[in-house]
Structures are given as structure tokens and as C-alpha cells.
Amino acid sequence: MRKVARALMALGMIALLLSTFAWTGCAKHPNEQQLQQLEETKQAALSAEKQLAECQQQKADLEKQLKAKQEELAKVKTEKSTVQSRLQSM
Hints:
The chain has 90 residues and is mainly α. It has helices spanning 2-24, 32-89. It has a domain at 51-90.
């Protein structure tokens, strides 16, 4: 009995949902305000994409600088250990 009631309720909800979609529908043509809002949204998206590309480029540059500094540090540490070993051998 409960299964039948739940099935009927589910069918009723689906029918209500579908009728709501059919009743409201979409307008055939957007109005001027909607077009303006669409254009503003498009410009904001393009601006955000440009800013993302700039940030990714900046990140890549910083990663290159970090790698160069790490390599320089490794060279300096090697040189330091070489100098220390020479000083101890004297």
C-alpha cells in the first residue's frame, strides 16, 4: 500500500514539474535588458579568463625563479663544503 502511494506521489510530482516547465517556457527573443546583462556577463568572463592567464604566467615565472635560486643554493652549499674540507685538511 505504501509503495503504491509513494509511486503515485512521485508520478504526481513529476507531472507537476513537467507542467511547470511547459507552462513557464522560454521567451522567443531576449529583451534589451537581458541582452545587456548577457554582454556584461560575457565581458566579466573574458576579463576573468585574461586575469587567470596572467596569474598562471606569473606563477610560471616565479617557479622558474625559485628553481634557479634552488640550483644556486645547491652550488653554494657544494662550494661551502669543498672550502670547509680544504680548511680542515690544512
